Amino acid sequence: MDNKLLKKAYAPENFRIRGHRLIDELADHLQKQLNDSKSKTLNWQTPEVELEFWKNFLTYSNESELFSQVLKRTTNVHNPKCIGHQVAPTAPITALSALVGGLLNNGMAVYEMGMAPSAIERVVTDFLCSKIGYNSEARGFLTSGGTLANLTALLAARKAKVKIDVWNEGYKESLGIMVSQEAHYCVDRAAKIMGLGEKGIIKIPTNSSYSVDCSRLEEYYKTAKKKGIHIFAIVGSAPSTATGVYDDLATISDFAKKYNLWFHVDGAHGGGAIFSKKYSPLLDGIHQADSVVIDGHKMMMMSAITTALLFKNGHYSHATFSQKADYLLEQSDHEDWYNIAKRTFECTKTMMSVHWFTMLKTYGEAIFDEYVTNLYDLGNIFGAMIANDSDFELAVSPVSNIVCFRIKPKNSTTTSLNQINADIRQYLLEDGEFYIVQTKLRGQYYMRCTIMNPFTTKNHFKTLLNKIKEAYNVLI
Ligand SMILES: *Cc1c(COP(=O)(O)O)cnc(C)c1O
Description:
The chain is an alpha/beta fold. The protein contains 17 helices and eleven strands. β2, α9 (185-193) and β3 form a beta-alpha-beta unit. Bound molecules: pyridoxal-5'-phosphate.
C-alpha cells in the first residue's frame, strides 16, 4: 500500500491551512452570535429532517462545507437570546485549549501519558479546594461530567462510611442515601447503578421555596432506619437544576455530622458561586462537605466536558476504586497523586485540566466572580420583571440564574395553563429567535430559562416576554 490517505491525513500543511480557515469561520460565527441582533439561536428542524440531511450530506455534499453546515445546524450558545440549558457559552480561549488537547491526545491515565496536564490538574484542584475552604488534607481530580462525578462521590462515601467492603463482597445489608426530591436525576441514577434500589433513595420533600425541607430530615432518617435501611450519605444541591434554588448546606452538614453520614454537595451548576463575592453566601457550609462537585462547562465557562470532584479528606479520593479494603490503613506518606486513573472512573480521559489552568492564567479567578455575579444578577432582574407583570407567574423567586415561570392570564383554568405554556415553548423553539426550555414542578408546567450569557440584557427579557404574550394570542 502506498498509504496515500494516511499521508494526506497527517500532512502538517493541510492541518495548518484548514485550521486557519476554521478559526476564521469560528471567529465570524462568534462575532455574529454576540453582536448581530437578527441572528437566531437555532434553526429548528425535526429529528427526521435533520437525519435525512446528514445521510444525504455523507453521499452527495462537498466536504469543504462540513464545518460550516455544523455551525448552521446547531444551537448557538453564544447568542444572548439562548437562555435555555445550563451549558456555558464557552470562553473562546477554552476552545483553543480544547484544540491543544484534541491534537496532543495525552491519555492522562498514568503520569507519563500526560505530565503537564497531570501536574496542572493537581494545581487546579488544590486551588479549588482552597477556595472551598478545605485545608491541606484536601485533594481532588477532574472527571468527565457532573453525572460521573456524583456517582464517584457516592462510591467514595460508601467506601468511607460502610463497614462491610461492598466493593469486594457485595451487599449484605440494605443501604441508602438521602437527597432532595428536586435533586438532579443523575443522583437517582447513580444510586440505582450502585444497586441501592428504589427503597435506598430516600427523597426528602422540598419547602415552599423548593429547597430541601430540613425540618423533615430526622423523620425521614428514622423511618428509613426502622425499615432496616442503613443510610450512609446525604446529598445537598447547590443549586437544584430545575429551579436554581440552593439547599441549606450548613443545616444539612449538622445533620450529617449527627448521624455520621457522608455529606456530598452537588454543585455541578452553582458550585462556581464560591468565586462570587456577592453570591458565595449561598454556599455557606460547603467547607463542611466531604465531597463537592463543580462543573467546568456550566458556570465556569469552559468547553465541555470537565468536572472537578473535590474531597475534604484527600485519602478518600484515592480509596474509591482501590481493590484492597484496607487501603486507607496502608496509606503512607507516599501518595501517587499523579497516576490519576487510579482515582477516576475513566481510564483514558481528555486533557481537561488545561481549560481550568488557561482560564486562571489568562484572566485570573476574578473572571469567575464577574461571570457568576453578572448572571445571578440577571436572574434576579428577570425574576423581578416577571413578578411585576400580571400576565406571568414565577414558580419561585429566583436566587441564581435559573428562572421558572409561566404565562397565567386571569381567565385561564389550571389544566389549560399546562397545555398553553407547553405549546408556547414549542412555538418559541420552532421560531428560533429565543431558546428556552421547560420543566414540570409539582405537576405544573413552567417555562424555564437559564441565563448563561453575560451579554443578555433586560431588553432581551422584555422582547421575550412580549413574544410569549404574542404567542399566547396566536395559539389560544
Ligand atoms: C448539570 C447537573 C448535573 C449533571 O452534570 P453533567 O456535567 O451534565 O453530567 C448534576 N447535578 C446538577 C445539579 C446539575 O445541574
